[in-house]
Amino acid sequence: MAARITAFLITMIAGIAAGLVIFFFMLLAMNGFSESDAMWGLAAYVLLALMVVILSSTGALFLARVLTKKQFSPVVSALIAIPVFSILSIGIEVVCSLIGVGVAELVRVNF
Fold it and tell me: Which of 70, 55, 56, 80 is nearest to 3 (CA)?
């Protein structure tokens, strides 16, 4: 049980940390947008990133559980689940940042 909770928490912390770094890079990337346009893109990114972090942390929890049931030790199962879902989470958060910039561009052009 401790391996599952550890996998969940460490994956969540890694996802949140990566999300904050990406958020600040988005602020730099959207320097030319007006505040009202950039707000929509940032809000879209925050919502998508929160969903990604929660889903990837839950995925790490379930992967650790499955690996433990397949006779892996709890430490090894956590050490496998954490990097797999942390890297997946960071990759999807980068895609979410591009979606956020796209939303800001869509609002800037059309509204």
Answer: 80
Domain ranges (residues) in the chain: 2-110
The residue type at 29: A
Q: How far apart are CA 82 and CA 12, in angstroms?
A: 9
Q: Using the structure block, give the residue that is written with the tokens 């790490």.
A: 60
- How many angstroms separate the CA atoms of 93 and 73, rounded? 30
Rounded to an integer, what distance in angstroms lies between the CA atom of residue 4 and that of residue 90? Answer: 20
Q: What is the pTM of this model?
A: 0.93
Instruction: Answer for the pair 102, 30: CB distance below 8 angstroms, yes or no.
Output: no
pLDDT confidence of residue 111: 85
- In contact, 76 and 67? CB cutoff 8 Å: yes
Q: What's the pLDDT tens digit per position in 17-65? A: 999 999 999 999 999 999 999 999 999 999 999 999 999 999 999 999 9
